[in-house]
Amino acid sequence: MVKITMNKPASARWTILFLVPILLLTGCWQKPTSTKYITDNQGRALILHGTNSSGNAKHSEGHVPWIQEKDVEQEVVEWGFNFVRFLIFWDGIEPERGVFDKAYLDMVEERVNWYTSRGAYVMLDMHQDVYGYGVGGNGAPEWATELSLMDDFALEFPGGSPWWLEYLDPRVIAAFLNFWGYNTHQYLQDHYILSWQKVAERFKDNPGVIGYDLMNEPYPGDLVSAVALTFEKTRLKDFYDRLIPAIRRVDEDKWIFFEPQSFMINFGVASTLPALSDPRSGEKRLAYAPHAYPLTLHEGVAYNLTDKFNMREWNRNRVKELNRHQAPLIVGEFGGSDDVPGFGEYLDDTLEMYDVMGAGWTYWDNHPGGWGPLDSDLNETPKVNRLVRAYPRAIAGQPIEFSFDVETKVFTLEFAEKEGVTGATEIHLPDRHYPNGWRIQSSDAEGRWGYEWDSHRQILSLTADASVVNHRITVSPAN
Ligand code: 9MR
Description:
The chain is of the alpha/beta class. The protein contains twelve helices and 18 strands. It has helices at about 10-25, 70-80, 90-95, 100-115, 170-180, 185-205, 225-230, 230-250, 295-300, 305-325, 345-355, 385, and strands at about 40, 45, 50-55, 85-90, 120-125, 210-215, 255-260, 285-290, 330, 360-365, 390-395, 400-405, 410-415, 425-430, 440, 450-455, 460-465, 470-475. Mean pLDDT is about 95; it is low at about 1-10. Ligand 9MR binds near residues 55, 58, 129, 138 and 291.
């Protein structure tokens, strides 16, 4: 019989071999050389937290999302979210070629106003998955589906296959290739662009609409260019170079959110998208809006080392891309199910990473049941306690860093005075994390700083001592 015994030095070696690399995978996130922020009309840096609203509008009657005004009240007031990624559909805007549906935009506007009237910012997301309705996906209207010679050829996937396998359907490939083929099917992109101009005309004077997410999860069509990463440098860049100036002809001021290719980049591979230009007068207002889905967690497998590796790669590659694009970061989608073992730990890790990167984010998605913050009976799921964090909604200065420790509930914020910025720094301190209240300390001298507390909104408005450059704030539970 072979008897295995481990002495101390050997177990120490095991620890070093296995535990240390695991610890290294998360918890030491990188940040861009110079983090950029979206600012409000007082010059305050905004940290934006919210949800996607909502996935069910892909296939609902009239693309109406499930939300009622009370649900928006819950997100914005009870949970303290100051942001939403609101899904809109090309099919809703232009259901027939050249016919733009005013009633659809009225419906969108009413819901957008539910958010903006409560002080939340709205990013409009032109959503698609698997191209559009003509090929079993969502996004593009049926009339905008060019199948060329592939219309008699369709792949059938067995029931229960992951939805994204549809991207391999030759009809979907054809629809995408024809959309990107501007020389042969110019009208497709031209109408997509026209649709965006209609949206911009409608929302350009609504200050709560912060901007436009040009296309959800762009996909080249064929797997070869997806894997070779040639699409972003060519067809996607050309498309953005047409679309961005066209939006600017209608709206000079709003933020334009651009995404990289979704496939592979979502789980951490480096994007090859070159820097884009913004023809507006003044500083460019382009924000980088990639998605983050660790590979196996997205498929419902317990949070594991592969996911952690994906996240580390995501962090490192996004930092390089942010240095290239010189843009703020908004993570437009990340999410999963509470049923997946380790999902809570994943959320804590990923939200910590976003804080380090100075990122805003919108959780996928707010539809009850499935991945949503509410279950199908509209009760809160465990993830809400994690998504609802202490965070600086608006920083009246130059942010240096901020963090929230989910165990100790200690929140810290460091920022510097910045010329021309006015108003208070607003910090969301959720009651759920501070059931017995909180106490706050500042590096500013006693009597030279102060705050107001809005107990209904759970927002602290802090005034710092403008005569010192750096401010460090610490909030901890009262006992
Ligand atoms: O979660 C969504 C799933 O229920 C749908 O079947 C699928 C196809 O419409 O879309 C999923 O949502 C995806 C989103 O539209 C794009 N990014 C990835 C999301 C999660 O897979």
